[in-house]
TrEMBL record:
Domain Helicase C-terminal: 3-86
Cited Pfam families: Helicase_C
Official protein name in the record: Helicase
Alphabetized UniProt keyword annotations: ATP-binding, Helicase, Hydrolase, Nucleotide-binding
The species this protein was found in: Prevotella disiens DNF00882
A molecular function (GO) term: helicase activity
């Protein structure tokens, strides 16, 4: 990624950094300060290292989502690194707006994960607004902790919605049979 930015877009390599280079909080703070001064133009980082508690917004013009998180709050936190008070460039030159670019691949796990994010956010919004009905839909335990079974991976990667529906029904049957035995 860095090589492509240097070779194709002629961005000096010293202006492209990775937050993982920082071995301690002091180094991380120095890198964020360099970003805010404009000494660093592009900073890469994971949600855990760059997505929360980092105030590097002063000159941010875009957030690039290179992967799809499992939780809506992670997406919100990532975007919040640039879309926030104190962004001088957005305020002065971009009508107080910051671009959010999401990279995703059709017919891949990306669409599944975004659908999962959507359903989770709907549920969260229902809880926050107290509009949750007496019956709720459990989308199953397909997240970063429990993962998906292989048939679900095959269904998602194939792009065949019938296979995905079959995988969900198989999982539901297994759950019901387990409950019946108990």
């Amino acid at each position: 990624m860095k090589r492509k930015l240097v070779e194709d877009y002629h961005i000096p390599s010293y202006e492209i950094r990775f937050i993982q280079e920082c071995k301690n909080e002091k180094a991380k703070k120095a890198m964020v300060e360099a970003m805010n001064r404009g000494d660093i133009r592009i900073i890469f980082g994971s949600t855990s290292m760059l997505g929360t508690g980092v105030n590097a917004q002063q000159r941010a013009v875009a957030v690039h989502q290179l992967d799809t998180p499992w939780r809506p709050s992670d997406l919100e936190q990532r975007n919040g690194r640039a879309i926030r008070k104190g962004n001088m460039v957005a305020k002065e030159f971009a009508d107080n707006k910051v671009d959010v670019i999401i990279y995703a691949v059709e017919r891949s796990l990306d669409s599944y994960k975004f659908n999962l994010l959507h359903n989770k956010q709907l549920f969260i919004n229902q809880l926050k607004t107290n509009t949750l009905g007496s019956r709720t839909i459990d989308e199953g335990s397909m997240d970063e902790d429990s993962g998906m079974n292989f048939s679900e991976y095959v269904a998602v990667l194939s792009g065949n919605t019938d296979l995905l529906e079959k995988a969900k029904l198989d999982k539901k049957i297994a759950t019901l049979e387990s409950e019946r035995k108990n």
